Amino acid sequence: MKKNKRGLVLFDLDSTLIEEETIDELAKLAGVEEDVKRITKDAMNGKIDFEESLRKRVALLKGLPIDSVKELIPKLRLTKGAKETIEELKNRGYVVGVVSGGFTIVTEKIKKDLNLDYAYSNELVVKDGKLTGEVRGRVMSSTAKGDILEEIAKRENIDLKDTVVVGDGANDISMFKRAGFGIAFCAKEILKKNADVSIERRDLREILKYVK
Questions:
Q1: Which of 14, 24, 162, 168 is catalytic?
Q2: Are 10 and 152 in contact (CB under 8 A)?
Q3: What is the mean pLDDT of the chain?
Q4: Is the pTM of this model over 0.90?
Q5: In CATH, what number is assigned to the domain containing residue 16?
């Protein structure tokens, strides 16, 4: 990419912009950690359809008080270098966003904390102050992230060849296949196969070497 040329960079959230897998942390609160972690692992390695895995995992959270969820969110940690990387990308003229199969309650906070331009994710359904075990939103199908990448690029009048995506798991594949450049960040093997470059050092500033 040419220096100072405007483009788009989209990040995954869990295990990419933040250190944790949010749903695994929620599972700890609900006492279903091992069950959820097993499904998460299979989903990220492409062994189970992401939407099916998400619905199964959220169903296990039924009855968890939303107040417990809200208490967890501030404890989630930004990945090393996240803040500096986003600031630098914006200084270079990039539109920056997060597209996550996770939840709005997290992505909206991260959007605000990092001054992101876009945040797409799913919503945990709440009734009477507790999770119902249901989830709804746009980032559930196997093509959702790729569709959203194209949608934002079109809205911002950015050519797909000037888009960069950063992620770690199987549900990122659709945006990796459509983006101009894909960076696998401490990723599963299935995503590395679809990436232009893989970074193993857990510091997001490493991507700045590839996004000029």
A1: 14
A2: yes
A3: 95
A4: yes
A5: 3.40.50.1000
